[in-house]
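Weekly modeling sync, notes
Attendees: AB, CL, MP (scribe)

Item 1: holo prediction request
CL wants a bound-state model with pyridoxal-5'-phosphate before deciding which constructs to order. AB pointed out that an apo prediction alone won't tell us much about the pocket. Agreed to run with the ligand included and paste results into these notes for async review.

Input as submitted:
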Amino acid sequence: MINFDQNATTPVDEAVLEELIRATREFSGNSSSGHTLGAKAGKYLRECRERVAKLLNAADADEIVFTSGGTESDNAAVRGIAYGMRAEQGRDEVVTSAIEHRAVLAPCDWLAKQGFKSTVLPVDTNGVVDMGALRDSLGPKTALVSIMLANNEIGTIQPIAEISRLAHDIGAKLHTDAVQAVGKLPVDVQALGVDSLSLSAHKFYGPKGVGVLYLRKGTPCECFMLGGTHEGGRRAGTVPLPQIAALAKALEVSEEKRIKHGAELRTLRDQLIAELTAKVPGTHVNGSLETCTPNTASIRFDGVYGGHLLRRMDEEGILASAGSACMWEITKPSHVLTALGLSDEEGGGTIRFSLGYGNTAEEVTQVADKLAKLVPELRAQPIEK
Ligand SMILES: Cc1ncc(COP(=O)(O)O)c(C=O)c1O
């Protein structure tokens, strides 16, 4: 099996798996318990929090809140900061972009139903946020701007440091969904200037069901998960220490991979694009490689229905995706491809290839050779959805 669908999820790294098993065995106590077993777990939880804070360059370990993953972190930040800023400063407007993950767009839609104003910014053909529209949308009532660092479908990297300066100039807060950035880009909360940031371990060689919400000290954020004082009162629920230990390890491992092998990942991705465009006529790259994560290629094949091609690829042992994994059953092009200005036909013929650190140059050539056969075969058949 060739896995070119690593933006959907990544395989758990061996050292991370070992840490998950070790921490499960070694820390059986509840980190909130006052007795010896609880205190031992609590001490290790603190250590993990400090390691994560250090890797993200957070000023204080208490700015790290552990969650169940990217979706929860995005929901907690968008809804929590909007409510917090409204309570504290009377601001009731949120601003986001058209290519955000649903984990941000849906809470913004929900806020609109609760009486907030929600503005969705357009993007250019490469997926970069329209900065003029952003400036126009900002005002004294803006509570929160939520723009992702890296897109999951086309890999677009947004100018977050610049966006956070604009948000801060008018007193608003800035959240970024950095779920797709770890292991591919530096994630430094000071350089980015963000007030909050979401991560999800399963996107960087860690286990599923655990994530991070970075919350800068002083950021008003109403807690939605009630029922306990865990995580400094910001997220109730017994803390899953083994998963958190694995997340901390995964963050270290993926940062090491990025520093040592990030350039190789980009070379592989570029090789894939070069081989596909040479071997399969009528192939186009969506977006710009200049502003794209090094592992992602969103590729459009003329005259082919992506869902059909994906099924044939799967039968041949090649995994990729039409858009995000959550969109697998949906036959319409994703909101991201539509926001770039692609027609239904262009979006429908798009495949997302997302590579990871286990992939090889041989796999790239095998995929390109296989598609050189499959695409003309499918073009010769009537399009059936
Ligand atoms: C950009 C982005 N944000 C949020 C999420 C949701 O993360 P999780 O799967 O941890 O809930 C994903 C997952 O696909 C993602 O790609």
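Recorded for review: The radius of gyration is 21 Å.
Action items: CL to compare against the apo run; MP to circulate these notes.
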